[in-house]
Amino acid sequence: MKLSEVAERLGATLVGDPEVEIVSAAGLEDAGPGQLTFVANPKYVPLARTTRASAVLVEPGFEAISAATLRIANPYLAFARALELLYPRTSYPPGVHPTALIAQTARIGAGAHIGAYVVIGDHAVVGENAVLLPHVVLYPGVEIGSHFFAHAHAVVRENCRLGDHVTLQNGAIIGADGFGFARITAAPAGSAWHKIPQTGPAILEDNVEVQANSTVDRASIGQTRIGPGVKIDNLVQVGHGSSVDADTLLCAQVGLAGSTHVGKNVILAGQVGVAGHCTIGDGAVATAQSGIPGDVPAGATVSGYPAIDNRRWLRSVAMVQRLPDLIRELKGRSSTAAREDTEKTAVSKQPEKEVRSREE
Q1: With 70 as the cut, is the pLDDT of residue 348 above it?
Q2: Could you tell me which of 140, 203, 134 has the C-alpha nearest to residue 174?
Q3: How confident is the model at residue 360 (pLDDT cuts 50, 70, 90)?
Q4: Which secondary structure element, helix H or strand E, spans residue 120, and what is its range?
Q5: pLDDT average, residue stretch 33-50
Q6: Are 300 and 280 in contact (CB under 8 A)?
Q7: Beta strands at 68-71 and 13-15: parallel, antiparallel or unpaired
Q8: In terms of CB atoms within 10 Å, which of 69, 115, 295, 322 comes out highest?
């Protein structure tokens, strides 16, 4: 693809040879002739000056460099779109594989691709242009909008509802039972657990993506709801009865206990854990491995366990790193003070000895 076409399709301003052929993309350090790369972080500017790439996506005010530049307000987003141009997504033609099992009462929209060993239960509804790859299972009563894309081994449990343009990566499970058990205190063995029925569906709104081996549990009562545009990374657990509002990111290994309510445009970084019945306000950010035991106000950035204001946490971490030096310093001061006290005591007792000597 000629660089002029890439610039046109991305809406970027081209500075350089429009006839250069772009065949692939690479990172700034590894890119070579025929490849497109990008700069979105100022610390990589020196690498841009020496890159072997044929073209670099940069911000409009970026300095002139030897490589051609495509100037655009958001180079990182533009690079993502360039990848879509250079590496077209695999297409799946409409049709149903002979090994698929589809209930007679199920309804499948036009243009659907149903792969090998797919199972679709009674009264399930799937919208137009869906792609269900091998071993996907839709339980009875599932309702899914158009342009659904389910990779191999994704599962949607009974009566769950998914909107348009929802993507499930491999092994994603929507609507498994929530973790609910009531203690039986009078059990013969001393204690036991009685399973609480999980009666409410999980609901995913439009443009949600759930990545590999993540789970969105169904609710005991009511519903578990994932708002439009939410992106859920690998190995994430969304507990029963929780809600996640629009355009929030849940990064790898995040865990939301039951009845957690997460606002819009929130970012929970890797391995963040949230206790049940907490509310996280719109626009909040929790840095990696934070433990959140209570509510977080809108717009806050928190870190650590228990999660506190990020700036306060950074100061605390800096102090912890200094503790060995501080302890040595305090021990040194204590030793010095002890010696000074001993010397003062010795000096104060010396005149008494001289007086007794004269009296004798």
Answers
A1: no
A2: 203
A3: low
A4: strand 119-120
A5: 94
A6: no
A7: antiparallel
A8: 69
DSSP state letters, 184-195: ETT-TTS-EEEE
Element (H, E) at 311: helix 310-359
The neighbouring-strand residues paired with 192 are 184
Residue 36 near residue 53, CB atoms below 8 Å: yes
Phi, psi of 311 (to 5 degrees): -65, -40
| 354 pLDDT tier (thresholds 50, 70, 90) | low
| Domain 3-86 architecture | 3-Layer(aba) Sandwich (3.40)
Q: Give the pair of three-digit tokens for residue 27.
A: 């990172």
pLDDT digits (tens, 9 = 90+) for 287-330: 999 999 999 999 999 999 999 999 999 998 888 888 888 888 88
Cis peptide before 306 (omega within 30 of 0): yes
Residue 275 one-letter amino acid: A
Through-space distance between the first and last CA atoms of the chain, rounded to whole angstroms: 113
Catalytic residue flag (residue 165): no
C-alpha span between 33 and 17 (Å, rounded) = 13
| 190 pLDDT above the threshold of 90 | no
List 165, 240, 261, 277, catalytic entry? 240
Enclosing H/E stretch for 167: strand 167-168
d(CA 295, CA 274): 9
Q: How far apart are CA 62 and CA 74, in angstroms?
A: 12
User: DSSP string spanning 32-70?
Assistant: -TTEEEE--SGGGHHHHHH---SEEEE-TTPPP-SSEEE
Domain boundaries, the chain: 3-86
